[in-house]
Amino acid sequence: MTKTEFKTFLKDVPKAEIHIHIEAVITLTGVKKLYAKRYGKEMSKEEQTELFSYNDLNGFIQAFLKVQDMFSSENDFNLVFKELEKYLVRNGVNYCEAFFAPSAFIKKGFSYEKMVKIFHKQITRIREKHGIIIKLLLDVSRTFGCENAMKNYELLKSVPCEDIIGIGLGGAEAKGPPKDFVPVFELALKEGYKAVAHAGEDVGPENIWDSINLLHAQRIGHGITAIQDKKLMNELADRQIPLEVCITSNTFTKKIVKMARYHPIKKFYDNGMLVTVNTDDPVFFKTTLLDEFWICYKSLKFTMDEIKTLIKNAYTSSFMSDEDKKKALAAVDAAWKNIE
User: Fold this and answer.
1) What are the catalytic residues?
2) What is the maximal distance between C-alpha atoms in the chain?
């Protein structure tokens, strides 16, 4: 099957994406619009090149923060969701759980309540127009420490919103070990929120162990350093704790994987682990969900039946209701008949 044939078929198969950051779905055109509004001038080609030049996780995080700094007001999130809408439609995604990191915006003086109102308005509009469901996870952010993470969680509670279903721990993994954030996760889970954690992206398997044993994270973002610990791989398989795998992202940051064909996702899959395919930050890593599945098929030698399982895994691993999961899985089966 050619790349065009593969992507044309897969676009029409309903899909879920459960590890993506809304600020990083903006296209380059959108970034340039934010820049022009923020600084009153056009973004030069040199500035564009510099912004997207990085070779490790920390370099990427600095670029991510620079994009966040281009936001002038809460209203810029209208652009974010219009770009997210286009991305989801282009990739045939009908269910999405996305991260939103408020720390940088709060520090800029933005109103959390105003942001949430815009989120709800745009999410409702997208659902009514396309039937696409979007849920958000508030990234409490390990980058700024536990005290800031707790403040972010308090914001989540202070402005209840049906679209924001829980918290995530993202940011500079090497600077914020899971054990530092136990109080936030204990409180969130006790009070009925969902809780996930980036781990094993830039630090060894010990961070994954701590995320599942100390934080009781319900999913692990990335988790690629599990390949260094067979006992951990078996633990994740036995407990069916989902991994939110982002192949191109992991390749770009080059900490563990330098080429896509060496990514451990196929070994995880063959070991019985519950793996899902995601993009993380499409504009920063120049990828889409369809591209990620093509990598699975072409470079990592997943069969089409296995691709189908990966697609189903995202729904299974999501925080959808059991009833909605059954409907979603049935829809994948129905769409897949076109290839059989």
Assistant:
1) 201
2) 55
Residue 334's CB is within 10 A of a number of other CB atoms, namely: 11
C-alpha Rg value of the chain to the nearest Å = 19
Continuous H helices in the chain? 3-11, 28-39, 45-51, 57-69, 76-90, 103-107, 112-130, 145-158, 182-190, 205-213, 230-239, 247-253, 265-270, 282-285, 289-298, 304-317, 322-336
CA atoms within 13 A on the CB side of 171: 24
CA 262 to mean position of chain CA atoms: 21
Sign of CA dihedral 33, 35, 41, 45: negative
20 secondary structure, DSSP code? B
Distances (CA, A) of 288 to 81, 93, 266, 267, 320: 16, 11, 19, 22, 23
Q: Are 16 and 93 in contact (CB under 8 A)?
A: yes
- Among left, alpha and beta (phi > 0; psi -120 to 50; other), residue 71 is beta
On whether the CB atoms of residues 215 and 176 are closer than 8 A, the answer is no
Give pLDDT < 50 ranges for the chain.
Answer: none
194-199 vs 243-245, strand pairing mode: unpaired
Are residues 23 and 282 in contact, defined by beta-carbon separation less than 8 angstroms?
A: no
Whether 214 and 191 have beta carbons less than 8 Å apart is answered as no
Helix (H, G, I), strand (E, B) or coil at 99: strand
Q: What does the pLDDT read at residue 91?
A: 98
* CA neighbor of 118 nearest in space, from 166, 71, 188: 71
Q: Collapse the DSSP code of 100 into the 3-class scheme (helix H, G, I; strand E, B; otherwise coil) and give the result.
A: strand
Written as one string, the DSSP assignment of 109-159 is: T--HHHHHHHHHHHHHHHHHHH--EEEEEEE--STTHHHHHHHHHHHHHHS
The answer to whether the CB of 218 falls within 8 A of the CB of 194 is yes
Q: What are phi and psi of 161, to 5 degrees?
A: -150, 125
72 forms bridges with which residues in the sheet? Answer: none
List C-alpha distances in Å: 99 to 102, 139, 184, 300, 315.
Answer: 10, 6, 17, 27, 17
Which one-letter amino acid corresponds to residue 122?
Q
What pLDDT is stored for residue 89 in this prediction?
98
